[in-house]
Design a protein that fits this description.
By secondary structure, this protein is α/β, with parallel strands linked by helices. It contains 6 helices and 5 strands, in the order βαβαβαβαβαα.
C-alpha cells in the first residue's frame, strides 16, 4: 500500500456530482485524510464544471506527487480534459463497471486525479473505487515512469510553442 499519510485530496464538481463529492468528502475526512473542497457547495443546475475543476487541478499541479484529486461531473470526460491541461496533472476517467481501469490508472500511469462520471457510478460503487485508487501504488517499472516523463516533456514543449 502506498504512503497515504501525507496526501492532500482536492475535490471538485459541478451540480452533476455534488452528492458524490459530499459522500466522498465525508468518507475521506472520517479516514483522517486532509481534504480541500473546491466546490460546488450547493446545487445549481446552471453551474459550469470549469469553475470548480480548474481550482482542484491547479492545486494538484502545485504538488503533483503529494496531492491527489477526485473530480466529478456527469461523465467525467470534460472534467479530465480540463484537469489534464495543468502541468503535472495526470487525470484518468472512471465511469463505472471495470474497476481494473482505476487500478491501471495508478499502476501504469501514476494518475493523481480521478474524474468520476457521477451519472454512471453508483454512490456505493464510489467508495469502493476510491479505496482501490487510494491504496494502489504505481509500478516501479522504469517503462511506466519513462512514459509519464515523456508526457510531461511533450506537454511542456507544446506550451512553449
Amino acid at each position: 500500500m502506498p504512503e497515504t499519510a501525507n496526501l492532500t485530496f482536492h475535490l471538485a464538481t459541478d451540480h452533476a456530482g455534488l452528492t458524490h463529492k459530499n459522500i466522498l468528502k465525508d468518507w475521506l475526512l472520517a479516514k483522517g485524510f486532509v481534504v480541500v473542497d473546491h466546490g460546488a457547495e450547493t446545487y445549481d443546475a446552471d453551474d459550469d464544471f470549469p469553475d470548480f475543476i480548474s481550482k482542484a487541478a491547479a492545486a494538484v499541479s502545485v504538488d503533483p506527487e503529494r496531492a491527489r484529486g477526485f473530480i466529478f461531473g456527469g461523465s467525467g470526460n470534460g472534467e479530465a480534459m480540463l484537469a489534464n491541461r495543468y502541468q503535472g496533472v495526470r487525470a484518468a476517467v472512471y465511469y463505472g463497471q471495470q474497476k481494473e481501469i482505476v487500478t491501471l490508472s495508478r499502476t501504469h500511469n501514476n494518475a493523481n486525479m480521478l474524474a468520476i462520471g457521477a451519472r454512471f457510478v453508483s454512490e456505493s460503487e464510489l467508495l469502493e473505487v476510491a479505496k482501490i485508487w487510494i491504496e494502489t501504488s504505481p509500478l516501479p517499472d522504469l517503462k511506466y515512469s519513462r512514459r509519464n516523463e515523456k508526457i510531461e516533456q511533450l506537454t511542456r514543449l507544446n506550451r512553449n510553442l
